[in-house]
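Justification of computing resources. Each target in the renewal requires a structure prediction run like the one illustrated here; the chain below, 301 residues long, is used simply to show the kind of job we budget for.
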Amino acid sequence: MAITPSTGASRNNERRRLPACAFALLIGALVVTACALPASPAVSQRPAPHATPLVDDAFPTPRLEGIVSERREVRFAAGDAELAGELDLPRGTGPHPLVVIIHHSGPVPRDSYGYLAEILVRAGYAVFRFDKRGTGASGGTYGCCESDDALAAYRAAVAQPGIDSCTVFIVAQSIGTQYLAEQYQAYAAVRSPRGVALLSSLLHADAILRIAAPVIVIVADSEADLEAIGPAAVAAHNERYGRDATLYVAEGAEHTLFDVRDGPMDWSDPVWVERYHRGAMAALVAQLDSWRASPGACAPE
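Resulting structure tokens:
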């Protein structure tokens, strides 16, 4: 907005000089009026507090009509709680390749990844996402057991009918990448994934080596430790396993891979789901397709 220069000086020159008596009366009236008015409350200089993270976030229902053959509600045990998840199956003849999503941090339900379900189902993948403990339709209280809950979700997902158990992929994001690395052997004991996508990865070289599977690391160019979680981690993985670990750096993205080149994210506005980084998601789908097309030894269950 343009700022117009003040014209106060010229206006003062145009004012007529008040007679002395009138001026005195005017001053007296102002003093009396000021004494009669209540004191204005002090204005705090502290900025308004930011909304509690995630409490005011919008989680729009994904637009899956016409691209899914089934939206299957799945209940599964996780420790002392029963959690709820959803398997979205694409149209066409199965069995279908499966993508299991391991969430980022916070008390988020399945629809926090509704946008990703839309992208992957359109690409021909079944997608499993779930309500974290104490959110959505899941029981229990949020605040514990996230790593174990994610493993329980994986176990429930790969056991579903209609799934190609030889073509299972894991997409983990942010803190989810750490949960996966911590318990990767347990995941592999359930079903070794054909590939793992590490979105917004937090894994340095020592941690990524725990994941004995092909990986793609997709991170934002705004990450403070980009070298460690990107090129250095991918190089270490390739040196250890001799596999095609790949890296995609999303330009103009914030940590969770949403495009902020047109301004910061407002998570309370439902249109945030439309601002996913197109390049990052295209790289994800292309890598999944490549893994899916490559031959791999598998004993179907």
